[in-house]
Specification:
It is a single chain. This protein has 362 residues and is α+β, with helices and mostly antiparallel strands. The protein has a domain of 93 residues: Orthogonal Bundle (T-fold). Helix content is 36%, strand content 22%. The strands form four sheets. The protein has an eight-stranded antiparallel β-sheet with strand order 1-2-6-7-10-13-14-15, with helices on both faces. A three-stranded antiparallel β-sheet has the order 3-5-4. Strand 14 and strand 15 form a beta hairpin. Helix 2 packs antiparallel against helix 7 and helix 7 packs antiparallel against helix 8. It is globular. The N terminus is likely disordered.
Length: 362
């Protein structure tokens, strides 16, 4: 089942993407098509694109769904699937034996570890044992708000003893992954959805699709420009985290204009529960073992959706001054920070893309 907040988020992004693409229906050679995929990465995935006929669009959709389905199953740490070794399989064999997995999962984990090494802090894919504790308390707190509690710090600290990502052993030749310590647990949530979205986009580009957008929850990947209209950019709405998430209104804090690239947002309003009137969300700081509390949301614009997904988590966890330094050292990454009081800060690159700052679609 999908909650009201999730469906609302989906509608916001769909409407935001449609701002521009609806102007593209005047071409004699192409038409705009839209479809929704449900059941992957706990969100609604929307594909909007231009094709010469329905049959062509359906072929692209089938390719996208096959890829999303495979990666969803491989990255799942809670469920088993027939004849598939996935993250759950790897975790169950921690401290026991290496697990042979499909090459794409090996590549994803390798990519995550490379990015961790490059960024040094803020994200740890071996934090699963800590995240499991928070997941259990969050699930119970949502089911029975009156009994919602925080996990004990000593339990989190004990789980943190099994979060050393240096103990992840990968054998690319054998396509195996081994967690050397019993009690270790992988969680790829910081990048899995974005990585999958980027992989799908690249598959579709290779297949010849030149104008489309994929919206997978807080991840939007655009390729090419809308066809047939008077604009050459897509419009992607950024949700206002300070608005009532249970409202039926589609509140946006701003709009990004983009042609080829990704827009990804991480926020404290997406998965959370409340204890004694305070919200505790799902993005856990590996240093404090508590939900990061610097911002309401962080939005990233850059080309690769997997990298954008990872960075939205990283910069949500890092304090603002450290995030600014990172952004200055990575000029191809545009950032929008939204603070709890509604104030915003942004990089110059992000400002040049935002409607509120005077940007207009080409």
């Amino acid at each position: 089942m999908f909650g009201k907040s999730l469906i609302r988020s989906f509608i916001v992004y769909l409407l935001a993407c449609s701002i521009v693409v609806t102007t593209g229906c005047n071409s004699d050679k192409t038409k705009r098509y839209t479809t929704h995929l449900i059941g992957y990465f706990d969100t609604v995935i929307t594909l909007i694109g231009y094709c010469d006929q329905q049959k062509t669009f359906d072929r692209y959709v089938q390719m996208a769904e096959e890829e999303f389905s495979q990666l969803h199953q491989l990255c799942d740490r809670y469920h088993a699937y027939p004849d598939i070794a996935n993250v759950r399989t790897i975790n169950l064999n921690a401290g026991k034996q290496p697990v042979q997995v499909p090459e794409v999962l090996v590549e994803l984990i390798q990519t995550a570890l490379i990015w961790q090494e490059e960024t040094e802090e803020g994200v740890n894919i071996a934090l699963g044992s800590v995240l499991d504790i928070w997941h259990n308390y969050r699930t119970m707190g949502i089911a029975d708000p009156g009994q919602a509690q925080l996990p004990a710090l000593e339990d989190l600290t004990e789980a943190d003893r099994h979060t050393d990502s240096q103990q992840i052993e990968i054998n690319p030749a054998e396509k195996t992954v081994f967690l050397r310590e019993t009690g270790m647990s992988l969680d790829l949530g910081a990048l899995a959805k974005g990585y999958a979205t980027e992989r799908v986009a690249q598959k579709l580009i290779e297949a010849g699709w030149t104008s489309f957008a994929i919206s997978s929850g807080g991840n939007v990947r655009t390729v090419g420009a809308p066809i047939g209209g008077d604009r050459n950019q897509w419009s992607i709405g950024i949700e206002d985290p300070n608005e009532d998430q249970n409202s039926d209104e589609n509140a946006l804090i701003d709009t990004v204009y983009l042609t080829d690239g990704s827009v990804v947002t991480s926020g404290d309003y997406q998965r959370y529960y409340t204890v004694n009137g305070k919200r505790y969300h799902h993005i856990i700081d590996p240093e404090t073992l508590m939900p990061a509390d610097h911002f309401r949301s962080v939005t990233i614009v850059t080309e690769d959706s997997g990298w954008a997904d990872y960075l939205s988590t990283l910069l949500f966890v890092l304090p603002y001054d450290e995030g600014v330094i990172f952004a200055e050292e990575n000029p191809d990454v545009d950032v929008l920070w939204v603070f709890s009081d509604g104030q915003t800060q942004m990089t110059d690159g992000m400002a040049s893309r935002l409607k509120s700052m005077g940007a207009v679609p080409d």
